[in-house]
Specification:
This protein is α+β, with helices and mostly antiparallel strands. It is built from 14 helices and 23 strands. It is 31% helix and 27% strand. The structure holds glycyl-adenosine-5'-phosphate. Glycyl-adenosine-5'-phosphate (GAP) binds next to strand 10, strand 13, strand 16 and helix 10.
Length: 462
Amino acid sequence: MDDILSLAKRRGFVFPGSDIYGGLANSWDYGPLGHLLKQNIKAEWWKFFVQQRDDMVPMDSAIIMNTKVWEASGHIQNFSDPLVECKSCHHRFRVDHLLEARSAEPGYDKEEVVRIEDVPCPNCSGQLSSPKNFNLMFKTFIGSTEDDSSVAYLRPETAAGMFVNFKNILQVTRRRLPFGIAQIGKNFRNEITPGNFIFRTREFEIGEFEYFINPNPADGAGWEAMFEMWLDQIRRWWKDIMQIDMDNLVWHELPDGERAHYSKRTVDIEYKFPFGVKELHGIAYRTDFDLLRHQAASGEDLQYTDPVTNEKFLPHVIEPTFGIDRMLLVSLLEAYHVEDAPTGEAGETDKRVVMKFPHYLAPIKVAVLPLSKKTELSSLAQEIANRLRKDWMVEYDETQSIGKRYRRQDEIGTPYCVTVDFDSLVDKKVTVRDRDTMAQERILITDLVDYLAKHLCSNTIN
Ligand code: GAP
């Protein structure tokens, strides 16, 4: 994690938030490369789960919604974590985190029941209070008065926006079940113990969809089959699109008693992070809980009428949900490689750090590097860079030695470097270097766009 953190800051993937003011605990800003990487992950997610399917429709709902939405969804009453406060240093801790840490201690007896009262404060070893519930929603006020009637909340999840728009979307798209509504957006949770870099923050993005199904279809393909279909798609997402080492994933089937009360099946997809096996994202069968609650609270009929059978019922929902920032963290961890590489001196090697992102996730696709700053070379190199920019994110760099420039591009994961040298003025060719193999090829400048288009692997899996 330290290596990733240092690379992220040094190269401009992620900066500590409000850095010049000493930061703001656990807030992070995405720098130029982090922003591009995140955009690319979201674009691939969108392509795989929405664009390439004929059963998904997109939307983008408001962050601040009518407070009645959160009453109906249960967030005002239940979206809380039990916390304890240290009676000496007044630090607050999540009860589940303390119990988890305690049971991970060496020598812990599995039969032992850990009582929170027996756990000393991790900060000062003081005594902890008894647990109290703490609502995680960020409160704000609408308009100029700050009283109970103007209270509003920043959304803690994107799902509610899709449930309250179910009727609108059904009317305008005239979709038949099964179909899904998808969106990606920012969410806010006043987490008490955020941490581990961008793993747990107070402001983060979720990509999720609500997949509406008939719980008793005539063809017999009920929720179990739909759930399996989505698990399979999720597996393909991680294996084929994100191209991660599948041994790093843990498929955690939540047993009875651990699931939310409305869920009949939940699978947490966990990842072996350097700080432990933790939830990466999840999938839940939420039954008709949400539509039922919003129907009752709003008084609107949210039922679906099947155009063929005329059957009228409340659809049930399967919800795959993905934390975008956690996916970005995983993509950094998976891409990070340290390898021996030749220095240029005969037989000598040194270490190179190389981020082996799949090409379509790489923030910068091509670097154009003239061997000298002399005008005749730099003007040709600029001309080439400007042409490539029409199709890809390109970096132009004419500073430092070529070796250092290659290392820098390796470290930010640029799949191809195009080197322009004095021979290029004569033979109209450039050298193209492959990030992963470090192999170099001489290519005619006129063939460069076609060469890169062919070699920059796009994700065409469907
Ligand atoms: N609608 C369901 C829902 O919101 P969730 O498990 O509470 O489910 C979805 O959140 C995903 O959002 C998580 O699986 C995780 O990837 C991500 N996530 C949750 N809390 C987060 C936080 N504080 N910081 C970063 N990502 C978070």
